[in-house]
Amino acid sequence: MQTRARGGAGTNQEAVRRHNLGTLLGQVHLRGRVSRADLTTHMGLNRSTIAGLVTELESLGLAEQVRSAAVRNGAGRPSPDVVPTPDGAHVLAVDVRVDGLAVARVGLGGTVLARATGPIPASRDPHAVADAIHAMLRLVVRDAAPSSALVGVGMAVPGVVRRSDGMVRLAPNLGWVDVPFSAILSERLGRIAPVEVGNDADLGALSEHLRGAGVDVADLVYLSGEVGVGAGVIVGGHRLVGAGGYAGEIGHLSLDPQGRECHCGNRGCWETQVGAHAIAEAIGCPADRVASLDEVLDALTSADEDLREVGRLLGRGLANVVNLLNPQVIVLGGFLRSLYPLVREEVDRTLHDAALVAPQELVRVALPGLGPDAVLLGAAETAFGRLLADPVSCLGQAQLDVESALVVA
User: Fold this and answer.
1) What distances in angstroms separate CA 104 from CA 90, 135, 139, 145, 301, one per listed residue?
2) What are 160-211's pLDDT values in tens digits?
3) Tens digits of per-residue pLDDT, 281-333?
4) 196 in helix, strand or coil?
5) Residues 269 and 252: beta-carbon distance below 8 Å
6) Contacts of residue 29, Cβ cutoff 8 Å, sequence gap at least 6
């Protein structure tokens, strides 16, 4: 692929080189360990060009070459493997949940280098939440090498997020309306790196597509089942985000106009039937334990009729997803990850009966390959975007000695 740039052939060649450098780093980042021979084949470049790009990544501290893991077959030395240097550059990832906060320092290759969890401020005031995130991020950067470059901050929010600027237009379960949380957090962190904000389900879909249950799957739906329910959608290998970034609010499809009132203001939304509070009510879980609902579900060995009814309602909603989007895989995240094994029979049977035959034959329901880290790692992937687009330029602007910077902030 060639890139046009003003300034003549030299400038154009530099743009192409930087593009190829980012593409190669992206392959190493996603695959974790890849031979130079595979990179040559995948990128369609000659061996000397690949060798030069790998050497440049080494000089930037982003990758290293190691002895090939392939079994030697025939004469000659096998091509060396290229692996990411996890702490050469890193991002900070944040998962804002209705019932808690999770943060991590994530290195190249999707390696979680440090993590911390904690409660969300009871007021859920955006500025108080930003203060809590700042304090937790200081914990996860304590052991970061001063020379490790921070290249971005990615954050997941359970709400409708405007793609252009990270404005949280509506997060009903947090009580947020038109909250510029990207700007609030960036200010609190001292603008140490660009802050990317996205919907939690969208980011779960991204990470499961790249690294989890949806690798090599072109059409996928990730269902985030927390207090609310949202969907992240991959169509033809690309994220479906909608005109403003608001696609996927499937939890607010009204399935029962006479049903319970939802936090969004409507009645009978799907999340009132299969969200955390509906599950908790079905199993008699006290309201103050909803934050640990997954632990409560994991301790159960069977489901009673009330919980099986939640399973049937989940299956009915999934049938709508199948009829509308025709995915190959539906990944159940959040509390649904712990619910599904208990009510698998009810979910599968209702899905089979309610969905159209043709799309139903093609879909399978799966648990997250990345477990509870799916959303957090999706947030990390968005934060790595600038580095993977242009490693040289991004590192030139990156913050070093992040611990000191956060203390000052």
Assistant:
1) 10, 12, 9, 15, 32
2) 999 888 899 999 889 999 999 999 999 999 999 999 999 999 999 999 999 9
3) 999 988 778 878 888 999 999 999 999 999 999 999 999 999 999 999 999 99
4) strand
5) yes
6) 84, 108, 109, 110, 384, 388
DSSP-derived secondary structure letter, 345:
H
For residue 362, give both structure tokens: 């093609």
Q: Which residues of 373-400 are buried (b: 16+ CB within 10 A; e: fewer)?
A: bbbbbbbbbbbbbbbbebbeebbeebbe
Query: SS3 of 161, please?
Result: strand
Strands 160-161 and 100-107: unpaired
Q: Confirm if 103 and 138 have CB atoms less than 8 A apart.
A: no
Let me know the angle formed at the C-alpha of 189 by 183 and 190, rounded to the nearest 5 degrees.
90
pTM: 0.90
Tokens of residue 372, six digits: 């509870």
Measured distance CA(311)–CA(393) in Å, rounded? 50
Report how far residue 320's alpha carbon sits from residue 340's, in angstroms, rounded to the nearest whole number. 18
CB-based contact 261:271 (threshold 8 Å): no
| Cα angle 1, 164, 245; round to 5 | 90
Q: How many CB atoms lie within 10 A of CB 207?
A: 29
Phi, psi (rounded to 5 degrees) for 270: -55, -35
71 closest CA partner among 41, 40, 39, 35: 35
According to DSSP, residue 269 is labeled B
DSSP state string for 4-43: --SS-HHHHHHHHHHHHHHHHHHHHHHHSSEEHHHHHHHH
- Maximum distance among all alpha carbons in the chain? 74
Strand, coil or helix: 363: coil
* Count of CA atoms in the C-beta half-sphere (13 A) of 323: 13
Nearest to 90 by CA among 105, 79, 77: 105
The contacts of residue 48 (CB under 8 Å, 6+ apart) are none
